[in-house]
Write a structure and sequence with these properties.
The protein has a seven-stranded mixed beta sheet, with helices on both faces. Strands 8-9-12-11-10 form a five-stranded mixed beta sheet, covered by helices on one side. The protein has two domains: 252 residues, Aspartate Aminotransferase, domain 2; 128 residues, Aspartate Aminotransferase, domain 1 (Alpha-Beta Complex), CATH 3.90.1150. The N and C termini lie far apart (81 Å). The chain is an alpha/beta fold. The protein is globular. Bound molecules: pyridoxal-5'-phosphate. Pyridoxal-5'-phosphate binds next to helix 4.
Length: 387
């Protein structure tokens, strides 16, 4: 045999090699998946092959992570995506089509809203209506005969309004409208959306589930009703998520419960402290009794994560805000959240529907895993720059 052939034919898997059983799955990478015989390949052409036939057919590392998420969420089917926004976009496309009307809560992840307006509405002739972020049974007012889908996010990840999910899903069920819930804030541990009648959940795995700010991934998990429809659409879209991302997501997921408990505790401690700071106006945290939808949080959620916000009494100038923010040593400036390092964003919020925080600068904190006293001191020192 020539060397040129040897270096190829000698590649793994060697016929008689039994792979070692490690606790964690191997990272399956690849386009081509080999068939054992011609008959199997022919079966795959006919769509009758039960195995994996190509790289876009969800390789085993991906399947392992999907199954772990599915079990944790209690859904019927989970599929993974290359980002949280890709999960949102694909779920929207799977459950709606041209001529349909969809409702989106006004505090939903911004790029998802933009996709609805700029792609679904402009390009694909759908109609998108924003509904107030704290909507409940009044959602009925916004329904049209062609309303096909409702995209929820509770709480929203900037201003933390909550929707009355069971009130909405009860109405949607009666009218065969699909309800999608972005539950990234609560993670699968602190909210059980399928128990509240939601048809499908979305998670930006990028955040708490992976936990280390070192990857982008998303999942959609679908309940019994629409599982088959979604699995079929996913297959049609031929989505490929790299094995490393699935591996790392799975790895991060194993420590989610202990991390989240710490995020929760530190965030609550900081939120309660901020309530005592004279410069601070409102603290936007669903687990605080002063939160307008606290009763909903108490009824539906099992815990709170480490992301919340606050506003100042004074409308500080950009220069004043910069003095405060740039003096912080532990709260870093950056998008995304849910990682081990504390992050901060500050922005004036603009909403299409009436908002409690319209025109106000909302300071959002993603409380990381640093010592909580150190974090408080950091904020305290930073606020010393303000008057
Ligand atoms: C970050 C985020 C997303 C998008 O996730 P990416 O992986 O960054 O695309 C979706 N929904 C919420 C609530 C998010 O915070």
């Amino acid at each position: 045999m020539k060397d040129e052939t040897k270096i190829i034919a000698g590649n793994w898997p060697a016929r008689d090699t039994t792979p070692a059983t490690t606790i964690n799955p191997p990272c399956y990478k690849g386009s081509t998946v080999l068939f054992n015989c011609y008959a199997d390949m022919q079966k795959s052409r006919r769509g009758e092959y039960p195995g994996i036939s190509y790289g876009t057919d969800r390789l085993p590392t991906q399947r392992q992570f999907e199954e772990a998420m599915r079990q944790l969420e209690g859904g019927a089917v989970t599929r993974v995506f290359q980002s949280g926004i890709a999960a949102i976009q694909t779920a929207l496309m799977a459950f709606s089509g041209s001529g349909d009307h969809i409702l989106i809560v006004d505090n939903a992840y911004d790029p998802g809203q933009r996709f609805c307006h700029k792609v679904l509405q402009k390009k694909y002739k759908m109609e998108c209506t924003l509904v107030p972020p704290n909507v409940g049974a009044e959602i009925e007012r916004y329904l049209q005969p062609n309303t096909r889908l409702i995209l929820l996010e509770s709480p929203g990840s900037i201003t933390f309004e909550l929707q009355d999910i069971p009130a909405i899903t009860t109405i949607a069920r009666q009218k065969n409208i699909v309800t999608l819930l972005d539950a990234t804030w609560a993670t699968p541990l602190y909210l059980k959306p399928f128990e509240l009648g939601v048809d499908a959940t979305i998670h930006a795995v990028t955040k708490y589930i992976s936990g280390y700010s070192d990857l982008l991934a998303g999942t959609v998990t679908v309940g019994d009703r629409y599982a088959e429809q979604f699995a079929e659409f996913y297959k049609l879209m031929k989505i490929y998520t790299p094995a490393e991302e699935c591996y790392q997501a799975l790895r991060g997921m194993h420590s989610l419960a202990v991390r989240l408990r710490q995020h929760e505790q530190s965030a609550l401690t900081l939120a309660k402290w901020l309530q005592t700071v004279p410069l601070v106006d409102e603290v936007l945290h669903p687990a605080l009794p002063c939160h307008p939808e606290h009763h909903i949080w108490k009824r539906d959620f099992r815990g709170s994560s480490g992301l919340f916000a606050f506003t100042f009494k004074k409308d500080y100038s950009e220069t004043e805000l910069a003095a405060f923010i740039d003096s912080l040593a532990l709260f870093k400036l950056g998008y995304s959240w849910g990682g081990y390092q504390s992050l901060l964003t500050a922005a004036k919020t603009a909403r299409a529907t009436p908002s409690r925080y319209a025109g106000k600068t909302v300071i959002r904190l993603s409380v990381g895993l640093e010592d909580c006293d150190d974090l408080r001191e950091d904020l305290e020192k930073g606020m010393g720059m303000l008057t």
